């Protein structure tokens, strides 16, 4: 027991080497610091922009946690935007609310502050999001320190300049940056061998936003097989369990004391909201809904009697989609089973061979599964998969191609969130410039000798070309795949990180979808069929994200080679 406790103490004492240990001390690399400062300046320019109802949601949560006792946090219904995040996020909101009365007391007034969005209140709330992003910057810095020097700035830029994070957090208004920072920091610790600390941070993340629980099975199986092993595996398991449960106990303990756990769970898991959100997240259920709409129209044309559902096509309010007309209804249990089933190949892989180098991909894949098959998924949830995968984009041209395709589709699918005309140039430019910049930077990174100074042959990898370099010149960062490539086993549609003709054609199609949704439909139909453009965007993007999910599934389901398991 003393040996295991000593190991845990050593892990805590060695946290500095696991957090930024490969860089100069714990100081942030100058290139990453400049990237963080540049994106912060951009965010300052966006302060006066449109904000969604999520602004009032979080302002109300600041008021609840600041003005009410803890036992009333999950009972208060003064506003329709009741607190429905786990307790650690509530404490985080309380922390952000502490200076608010000095700026404007109405920000944290539960009753008088309803729908309050005075300029100083907006500035204060925007500032809290920007301040919380410091954790994301630090997490990216910590992970980048494990990469070769030539890849650090590129990986950091791909995450920090994500147009999805900028649009969702700093225009639409949310706090995804700090949550994804916790996730990346946890992954970085596990990659560096700090399993217990990584597990504790993930538990903190779950107690901040429960929707991250999709990766729970991945963490559980990995830590069980990687950390809880050896002659003291039982003691290690007890130490790990105690560490994680202590976080959960600290977060939910007060509500156990007040006997409010059923009420808290009711707030966290409102299954009555329906299968899909107002704007269908581009996942399997968007395709399912679209198929139901098409089948219902065809059935009516054929003279078949089909139930009429008011608002089934043009509705948009939560829980008012009208249900399915032809296809069977989908239940929360079915979506949960599909998520677990899609995770099985990944879990089996980790069980057989838990490797720190593969952990990031497995976590990102789990969030992609949750996005594809989860219940009442919001379109913003795609960021939980896209942002971590940005850190893999620098590993090989093949990884760059996968990321470039998925991120382009994902960021395009977020454009309908910003629906006001004044934000149209901003969202289009942010997305287009990011796509151009990542394409150019990744192409430049893989076009030279990069991290191999002994190589005199440039490695050409044009991200927008279907032509492939010599397969022996590049590696994917996925060892068993590299072994198969070097062995010359067959050919694949994806050519080592390059976009195939199919992928290029699909991405070009996004331009025509945007032209119709934003310009042609309003000009021709005006206010008729208002949900049709959203349905088109959601369905088309769902096809692309489903394709990207299949690519990731093929990777995690592939049997490791003997060489990679040694």
From TrEMBL:
Family: Belongs to the ALG6/ALG8 glucosyltransferase family.
Protein name (record): Alpha-1,3-glucosyltransferase
Residue ranges, compositional bias (Basic and acidic residues): 468-483
InterPro entries: Glyco_trans_ALG6/ALG8 (IPR004856)
Enzyme Commission designation: 2.4.1.-
Annotated region (Disordered), positions in chain: 449-490
Membrane topology: Multi-pass membrane protein
Main location: endoplasmic reticulum
